[in-house]
Amino acid sequence: MLAKKVIAEALCVLLTLTVIGCGKNETLQGAAFDGKEYIRESELTEAGLDMDKAGMEKELLMSLDLSLSVPTYITKVNDTWFIVDCYHNKVIYSDSLDTPIQAWNIMCDEVIQPHTLASDGKVFLVDDTENNRVLVYEKWVDKYLNTQVFNDIGNRPHFSVYDEGTKTFYVWSSESGEMYCFRRPEDSTRLYLTDIRKVEELSSTYVRSFTIIDGDIYFVSGLSGSGKAPQILVCDLDTFKVKKSYPVPDNIAGMVQMTRIEDMFYITISTDITGNQDYATLIRTKSLEDLSKGEYEDIYSEYFIGGGTPYNISQVGDTYFLTEHRLIDHQIWSFNVKDGSIVNVQTVF
Asked: What is the pTM for the complete model shown?
């Protein structure tokens, strides 16, 4: 047993350039998680230990806020809409977008400046950014209960995604270059931290998000304290080894998020390389290689109001949603894209 342990530890050392945490498989692709190999399991809350008791005791609360305060993400899971209301330190939900914001219910208010919500339809992950942790929620009748928690999740976990292909929740630590990977057995809602992937090239750069496309993971350009040139990195989703890098101009260095729509990349920009929000915009391009030459289309003021800070783009069906801040009367937009044309642009909130 000791020899096997030494060999396993040696293999983990060899993989630390791209992967922290070592199990039976070096890849997350393939077989379902069996609950046997993991780094640590979630801590159960009181609600996690007895959902029925917690559900009966929990009061169904409405938001009461007349407007949103820096909404960062909107999505729909099953038949329910969720909005991450970042500066109100909560996640709210409703069965209809027509519901006034003050009448949305509160899913989560135990967080400080959350940024996204990810779900596989059974469990819901919320990144508790300023507390460096992840909270897990489950539905009980018409309420959502915080049943599990993972503490010490990197440095400002900022973006979370559930990927159906790997049956994995990916949570990005925005200031340490680490990706925390969570999985659960098919017959259980208990989550396990199974891998911590490391991208050394991003360890000293503030990177807000990532996008999984065709077996690769794209990291948007961020702001570096070490003077690194701004760039988009493309890594292999299995190994997190860097495959390509695309330099970007200083004026769009502070990216937020990237979404591929049809054959184009849509990228939200928060700041330039100095952190100046006056450069905030929304651009699109067919080729990431063209960014370094300044060859991209700025679509923010043409299709939207402009003047704010576009943040995340999410998709529900064939409709896309854009969150933004600095504009009180325009905080969430919806739009469609048809054959490269942006159509049906509407203010949702």
From this structure: 0.91
